[in-house]
Structures are given as C-alpha cells and as structure tokens.
Design goal:
Pfam families: WD40. The chain is mainly β and 462 residues long. Helices cover 9% and strands 39% of the residues. The strands form seven sheets. It has a six-stranded antiparallel β-sheet with strand order 1-2-6-5-4-3, with no helix packed on it. It starts with 7 loop residues before the first strand and ends in a 20-residue tail after the last helix.
Length: 462
C-alpha cells in the first residue's frame, strides 16, 4: 500500500478500471505541516500548484496529484493516481468539486474531488500535456500539448470540443479570457495566439516574441496578458492590439512560472535560477524578491489572502512563503531529487539520473519508480508491492552490474522496450561504472524477493 509520507494512511480505495489499469485514491489523515511549512507528500518534483480558497492541488513527477486542505492547518486529503507518467498540470473547476490534470502520458484527466474518483479520461494529444486551464464558467478546459496543438474540452459532455492548430512547435501555456470567450495559447515558437472558444476559430497572433514563451497569466481589469519567456523576459501585452504595455526587469535565465494574486494586485514570476519576484500591478514596482533552494521554480500560486505564496520545483515538497515575513522564500536544504553536490562521482550520477524516481532505502517513498534497495540479484519486475508495466513484469532480466550498466549504455527503450522508464543514456563508460559501483555499495547486496502477481495499487506503473 502506498503511503503519503508523514501522514497516517487510512485506506486505499479502488475506484474504477480505466484502460486496463487500476485507478487508486490514497486517503491520508493528519496534518502535513504548520502554517508556513512545506506541504510534504509527493515522491518527486512538483510541477504545478493550484489553489481554490482553502484547498490546493499539487501535480508531481511521481505520477500523482495530491488534494490538500490548507486551513486551519495543512492536511493531505487524497493522493490521486491515474496518470501513467509524470503529472505536469492541475486546475480546479469553479465550485471546487472537480479538477482537471494533464501529464507526460498525453492524458487529460477529469477528477471528482467529492468522491475522489477519476471521472473521465480525455485522450487525443500525441505528446505530453504541460498546462491546463479551466474557463471561468467551468464549461471548458484547455490543454497545451507538445504535439504542437492546444485542445478545448467540454466539461459538460466530457468530450473534445476543438483542436487548435497553428503553433509550429510545442505549446507550453493556455489561459482563458475572464469572460471565457477567448483562449490564449503560447509556445516554443515564440508566439502568443488568440482563439474563439465557441468554435475553436483562430482569431489572431497576439504577439511574436521570438523566444519561446513558457507561461501566461491574464491580468484583471483589462491590464493585459502577462507572459514569461526563455530569454528571461516577463512582460505584459495588450491582447487586442498586440502592443507591449510593460516589460519588467529581465532575469538572467528562463522564467518558467507566473501567478496573479486573487485580488489582482500582484504578479509573481519564478525562474530557472530559483528566483521568485513579486511586483505590484498598480504601479509595476518590484515589492518582494526571494529564492527557492535546490533549483528552478516550476510552479507558483498565491494563497487565498494574497499575502503568501506557494512554490515548487525539483524538491518533492511545496514551499510556503509568508511574504509578510523574511525576504527569502525558500531556505530549506534540497531533498528528494533536488540537485546536490557530492564528492563521490557515483553519487553525483545517481543524483543526476536516478534520485528523482528511486530511493535506496526499503521504502519507495511515493516515487515514480520502485526502490533500488537490494537491487543486485533481483529479477526485473519482482518487487511484491510495486505495480510494474507489462514490459518489466514479463522480463527475464536479472539486475547485475553488467545488466545495469547495459541499461544506461543502450537506454531503457532498447533493453526493456515498452517500459515507462524515462529515456536515459550515459555515453561515458567511466560515469556508468561510477554509478553502478555506487549502487552496488549503497543497495546492500543481493536479496531479491520473488515475483508477485498482486502488486500494490498505491504506486503508478512503470
């Protein structure tokens, strides 16, 4: 049974079968943290945060979302499992009873938060889905795909509404106009485009920035459309005229995330360098600046009162910055796959290639992959408490120093084709041997459990 780390698990409920995969919801009781402390429950990087009143939704590389109660004290309500790869984006449907998510598996999932069940699988993207937006009236969801399309979905019929084609590269961001009549999209081709929601008609190219655009945020009160780009730009464009109305002081590295406070008075931006900047929208002045330890800021969301900010990235925790307090946003030491500096070359390779998905301890820690504890001498797909993909479940590979090195030399797509393991190849034989040696030392020698036909439902399959 999967456990939400630092919570007492109170049950796993099988809620349905979709595409021959069991969908599980792990409910957790207990407080995750005191106010201002991290939300701790994921087993991998946090790619998105959404907040609706007293509730939050976090999306993670560990294939799951967690539904949180933030007040009076933070508590994990449920861990939602249904994606077959990392989850990049999540959004509440107005009213707080449903949510929509998108992931590296190309799936757009609709969840009933009241029941804790998967309500619908919306399929059609031929690549990862990296952003989700829901219209203010709750009638439509939009998804941004790396197949070069954005898609509109009806949340009434739970069906495809329109495919939006026009970008010449990955689509990275989607955002609805406040009245829900228009959708804005942005992509790696550097363009921001406008579409009519009613029928999916392309209306205009709002702006051509030249550099890839990573994030969009609609500003209230006709203040325009904020965007963040790979060249460090954060700027505001008038979506009707295409005129840049304001450009903030540039960052040194790409800006990856934007958030607008609920009262519309502040704009926050998170960068690849770990920077977090907050501006006052009435006068465009920088009012706060902080840093997230351990790598890029992938996700940002203001709390309901607008006085604090949640932010996430490579660490498995979602940090909470009280902006009425110290200037520094995140000071905790990196953990759970965040970048580390290690003297041991094998440990460096493990941090770079393995730590996001795997632990070296008996517990899998809600990671996307199984624990590597006692890896050597174990048959692939044999841990009794992990639901493997069919490719690994039926494999005859025994993990030895030779087979592990071959996995990284040739890549999982060659050694175990059909598995969900990310494509990783290490061309340097010295680095490969350092990694294998480190794993051999740290995983406590051979002792493989026998193959099981009854895997736990609390972890995603690989």
């Amino acid at each position: 049974m999967a456990r939400c780390r630092e919570h007492r698990p109170i049950g796993v409920v099988i809620v349905g079968l979709c595409a021959a995969a069991a969908i599980a919801v792990v409910a957790c009781a207990g407080t995750a943290a005191r106010a201002g402390e991290p939300l701790d429950g994921h087993g991998g990087p946090v790619g998105d945060i959404a907040i609706s009143g007293r509730f939050a939704l976090t999306a993670s590389f560990d294939y799951s979302l967690i539904h949180w109660l933030l007040e009076p004290e933070p508590m994990a309500l449920a861990r939602l499992i249904g994606h077959e790869a990392g989850v990049n984006a999540g959004a509440f449907v107005p009213g707080g009873k449903r949510a929509v998510s998108g992931g590296d598996d190309g799936l757009v999932a609709v969840w009933s938060l009241e029941r804790g069940t998967l309500a619908a699988r919306l399929e059609g993207h031929r690549g990862r889905v990296v952003d989700i937006a829901v219209s203010p009236d709750g009638r439509h969801a939009a998804s941004a795909g790396w197949d070069g399309t954005a898609r509109l979905w009806s949340l009434q019929t739970l069906a495809l509404h329109a495919v939006l084609k026009g970008h010449t590269d990955h689509v990275n961001a989607v955002a609805f106009q406040p009245d829900g009549a228009r959708l804005y999209t942005a992509g790696a081709d550097g363009t921001i485009r406008a579409w009519r929601v009613r029928d999916g008609t392309a209306l205009s190219t709002v702006h051509d920035h030249g550099w890839g655009v990573n994030a969009l945020a609609v500003l209230p009160g006709d203040r325009g459309l904020a965007f963040a780009a790979t060249d460090g730009t954060v700027a505001v464009v008038d979506p009707d005229t295409g005129t840049l109305t304001h450009e903030f002081a540039g960052a040194e590295r790409p800006v990856l995330a934007l958030a607008v406070s609920p009262d519309g008075t502040r704009l926050a931006a998170g960068g690849a360098d770990g920077s977090i900047r907050v501006w006052s929208l009435p006068d465009w002045k920088l009012v706060r600046e902080g840093w997230q330890a351990g790598g890029p800021v992938w996700s940002l969301a203001f709390a309901a009162d607008g006085e604090s900010l949640y932010h996430g990235g490579m660490d498995a925790r979602t940090f909470h910055w009280d902006m009425t307090g110290p200037e520094v946003a995140g000071t905790a030491a990196p953990r759970d796959g965040a970048p580390v500096v290690a003297a041991d070359p094998g440990e460096r390779q493990f941090a770079r290639h393995c730590a996001i998905c795997h632990t070296l301890t008996p517990s899998g820690g809600n990671r996307a992959g199984p624990t590597l504890y006692r890896l050597f001498g174990r048959r692939a797909g044999s841990l009794p408490d992990y639901p493997y993909s069919p490719a690994l479940d039926s494999s005859d590979i025994v993990w030895t120093e030779e087979t592990v090195e071959r996995l990284f030399a040739e890549g999982p797509h060659k050694v175990v084709p059909g598995s969900k393991m990310p494509l990783q190849r290490m061309g340097d034989p010295v680095a490969r041997r350092a990694l294998v040696g480190y794993l051999k030392r740290m995983t406590d020698g051979p002792a493989g459990p026998s193959r099981s036909t009854s895997p736990s439902l609390g972890e995603p399959a690989r």
